[in-house]
């Protein structure tokens, strides 16, 4: 099963940066085809990481379980859960997007595993994002 997720953070106030979570929406994507994710086909971690590095991005973390890569020009941070021991591959894209006075951090994910495991992975990523941005909120 593939799961997709979008999360947005919006600043409030005129001269101050205050981040408040305003949207958290989960939607299932059909498992029949590789879904496009932030401009890439979510089918191969190695292929996406190769494309990111060839385009000027870089790998910032590579462990037995995860790879993290950044694309500074597109303001994207990627997290990939490596398939191992029968676990699923997952592709997570976090992109900063500005529309007028609003700044969003859009989190999109494609998870090729059972719903409970995918939900746990996404919850973990959201928890890490919440902790990392806590100092930006009032």
The helix/strand order is EEEEHEEEEEH
Secondary structure: number of strands: 9
How far the N terminus sits from the C terminus, by CA atoms, comes to 37 Å
Largest sheet: 5 strands, antiparallel
**Beta fraction:** over 45%
Basic shape: globular
Percent helix? 10-25%
| Major sheet: arrangement of strands | 5-6-7-8-9
Number of helices: 2
Low-confidence segments: 1-33
Mean of residue pLDDT?
75
- Class from helix and strand fractions: alpha+beta
Rg value: 15 Å
Can you tell me about this structure?
The chain has helices at 45-54, 115-133, and strands at 2-12, 18-29, 36-37, 40-41, 58-62, 66-71, 76-81, 90-99, 102-111. Residues 1-33 have low confidence and may be disordered. Strand 5 (58-62) and strand 6 form a beta hairpin. The protein has a 5-stranded antiparallel β-sheet, covered by helices on one side. With 138 residues, it is α+β, with helices and mostly antiparallel strands. Helices cover 21% and strands 46% of the residues.
Spell out the key features of this protein.
138 residues; alpha+beta; five-stranded antiparallel β-sheet; two-stranded antiparallel ribbon; 2 helices; 9 strands; 21% helix
Give a topology summary.
Layout: E1 2-12, E2 18-29, E3 36-37, E4 40-41, H1 45-54, E5 58-62, E6 66-71, E7 76-81, E8 90-99, E9 102-111, H2 115-133
Antiparallel strand pairs: 1-2, 3-4, 5-6, 6-7, 7-8, 8-9
